[in-house]
Structures are given as C-alpha cells and as structure tokens.
Backbone:
C-alpha cells in the first residue's frame, strides 16, 4: 500500500497537526523562561550559600549562573521548535551534571518542561515520540553511569539507616523509581495535552459544521417556503382571476342586448372576487400567524379548502360557460388535510387551464377512493397540448410539487382523441 493510500485510510483527525502557537502563547513562553531563570539564580545562590551541594567541588558561582541561563533560554521556543528544544535542554542538563553544578532542582524542571512540550506540540507525532524515547534512554543511561560509579566507589557510611533494606540497594531503587516517575509523567502529560488540543479543535470544527448545516437548512427552508407561497398565490389568483376575466368578457358582450345575463355575469365576478380576497386573506393570515397561536387556535380550524369544496370549483367553472361534471367514486374516507388541499389546488389549476386555454365545452372532475390510493382526474374535450400551452408554466410545476410532497404521481398530457387529461394519485 502506498503512503497516499495509507493516509486516505486513516481517520480524518489521525492526521491532525497542531497549529503554530499564537503571539499570546509565545509571550507566555518568554515569561516561563524568565521564571525558570529566576528560579535557577535563586536556587544556585542558596545551595552555594548553604554549602549543600551534593558534589565535593564545583565550578565558580558565575559559571553556575551561566548554566542556569543556558537551561532557561531554549524554553522561549519550546512550542515553535519543541523537538529541537528537547535535545538542547537534554544536552545542557547532562553538561550541568558533568560540571557538578550545585542545584539539581531547576535543571530537572527545565528537562520536564522540554519533554512535556515535545509531546504537547510536536507537529510530527512519530518524530516527537522517538525523540522523547531517545532522550529518556540517554538520561537513564546517564543515571546508570552514575549508579555504577556510586557502587564501585568506597561504600559511604549510612549511620542513620534503620529500614529493612540494604542502604546501597535502597539508594539505587530510589534513584531508578524517582527518575521513572519523573520521565513517564512528562511523557504522559505531554501526550494528554496534545490529545486535549486535538479534541478541542475537533469540537470547534464540528461546531462550525453544525453552524453551516443549520444555515443551509435555514436557507433551504426559506426557499421551500417561498416556493410554497408562490404556488399557493398562483393557484388562488390564477383560478379566480381567470373566472373573473371570462365573466367580465361575457358581461361586456351581452351588456347592450341582455341586461339580466350581464347582471348575472357581474354578480359572478363580484362573488369570485370576494372568494379570492377571502383565500388571500387566509393565506396571509397563515404567513403572519404566530406559531404558538397556530398551535392553540389552529388545531380545530378547517379553513383550508379540501374535497368538500370541489363542487364549488365545478360551479365556478360552470359560471364561466364550461359544462363540468363532478363525480366521487368509491367509499369516501377521511383524508389528511394536506392531501385534501393538494387535491383541491390541482383541480383548481386544471379547471383554470381548461377555461383559459383549452377552448373546451365540457370537463369531467372525478375523485376515486381506491384501495391503496386516492385518485383525482380532470379531463376536457378541448385542444389538447395546444390548449395547455398558456398554462404549462408554473401551474404544471406546482401540481408536480404538490403531488411529490405526499409521495404521489402525476400524469398530464393530451388524450388520444381530443382534449387534455390531468391525473394525480396519492398513496392511501
């Protein structure tokens, strides 16, 4: 397997690399290095002043302070170049002990910070791991060298020893155990810091993905709502305005000859206008309604048109001069409000297209309650495909959208002999 294939097979966050430290973190590293330097100066002065150095002889005080500077200075770059700082501090640590500097506490703290930083900030995890292992191996080798020198030297007197173990054995075990705890703690906490940073980055990444997903969902909901509003407005306005146009034209043509027929046509225009305004107000009321009010007040409302109002649509089309036959077949059963509204709008749009474009004399509206579906069919005896040309835009698209919402099917096209057929099926 190639390197590229192996990388592709790894989890996304297994290849994460910690970003470079920010300016504020670099300033904290400078402060930390200054604190280590101050500690080295204080401890060196105190140890030399007390004569508490573990060595019989050592370098001058000025050289010991210089070694303190050499230990603290690399810590300024511990986040930017963690592995390099680890090697430098490790080498200086051995040099400090070789020169027999009196203080051993601050050098140990500096080495701990260097091992920790390599684990927490090493960009190449493999390199950081092996660098720490190498430094710890060298340190244990240095410890072994010191223990061998201790064992071959004349045995010191342990006048106050009172434990069950041999004093020399206890000294060796104490040195090994303390150093193991020291190095393993630095290694463990460094890895923990790196894992914590990766998890924090992963949480931030997922939070950003969630925010973008929410924005996308919001935009999708807005677009869907706009489409729904446009569809409803088209269905309401197109149908009623078409009827009003036909009736107004009929009134104009017979106004001088038959006042009663003209009066009846104008009455139909008036009633259709009121119906259109009522439906538009209902639609606007839904758009302006507070969601909580809809839950409290809308549960028992039945203002949306449905199957019961199909007869009214047929009557309106008859008033426009179209002979409409409306029939219901099968055993009627309750239908969800959304499906009933979609059936109503499809019939409304189909009859509107027949009145406006088909030049038809007759139309059939049939509702069939089948065993596994609800079917509504509108046919006419007009001009077929040509008759729909003026209304094949948003109207037919709106029909398909309404049917698709409920998982149904729509068939629309010219009939074999004459006219046009629209058939929508909704799953039961």
Residues:
């Amino acid at each position: 397997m190639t390197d590229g294939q192996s990388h592709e097979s790894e989890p996304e966050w297994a290849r994460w690399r910690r970003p470079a430290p920010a300016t504020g973190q670099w300033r904290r590293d400078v402060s930390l290095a200054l604190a280590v330097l101050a500690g080295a100066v204080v401890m060196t002065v105190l140890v030399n002043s007390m004569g508490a150095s573990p060595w019989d002889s050592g370098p001058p005080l000025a050289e010991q302070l210089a070694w303190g500077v050499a230990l603290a200075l690399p810590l300024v770059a511990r986040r930017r170049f963690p592995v390099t700082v680890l090697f430098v501090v490790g080498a200086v640590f051995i040099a400090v002990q070789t020169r027999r500097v009196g203080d051993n506490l601050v050098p140990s703290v500096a080495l701990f910070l260097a091992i920790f930083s390599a684990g927490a900030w090493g960009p190449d995890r493999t390199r950081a791991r092996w660098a720490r292992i190498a430094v710890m191996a060298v340190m244990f080798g240095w410890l072994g060298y010191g223990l061998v020198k201790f064992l071959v030297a004349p045995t010191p007197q342990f006048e106050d020893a009172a434990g069950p173990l041999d004093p020399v054995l206890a000294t060796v075990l104490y040195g090994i155990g303390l150093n193991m705890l020291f190095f393993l703690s630095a290694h463990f906490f460094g890895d923990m810091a790196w894992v914590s940073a990766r998890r924090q980055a992963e949480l931030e990444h997922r939070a950003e993905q969630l925010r973008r997903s929410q924005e996308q969902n919001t935009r999708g909901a807005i677009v869907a709502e706009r489409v729904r509003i446009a569809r409803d407005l088209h269905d309401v306005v197109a149908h009623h305005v078409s009827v009003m146009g036909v009736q107004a034209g009929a009134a104009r043509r017979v106004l001088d000859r038959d006042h009663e027929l003209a009066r009846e046509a104008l009455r139909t225009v008036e009633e259709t206008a009121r119906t259109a305004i009522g439906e538009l107000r209902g639609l606007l009321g839904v758009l302006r309604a507070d969601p909580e009010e809809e839950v409290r007040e809308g549960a028992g409302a039945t203002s949306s048109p449905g199957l019961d109002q199909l007869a009214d649509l047929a009557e309106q089309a008859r008033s426009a001069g179209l002979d409409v036959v409306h029939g219901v077949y099968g055993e009627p059963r309750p239908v969800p409000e959304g499906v009933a509204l979609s059936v109503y709008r499809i019939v409304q749009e189909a009859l509107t297209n027949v009145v406006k474009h088909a030049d038809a004399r007759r139309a059939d509206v049939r509702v069939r309650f089948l065993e596994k579906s609800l079917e509504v069919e509108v046919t006419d005896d007009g001009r077929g495909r040509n008759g729909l040309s003026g209304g094949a835009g948003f109207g037919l698209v709106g029909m398909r959208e309404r049917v698709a919402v409920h998982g149904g099917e729509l068939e629309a096209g010219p009939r074999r002999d004459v006219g046009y057929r629209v058939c929508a099926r909704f799953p039961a």
Summary: The longest strand covers residues 323-330. The chain has 13 helices and five strands.
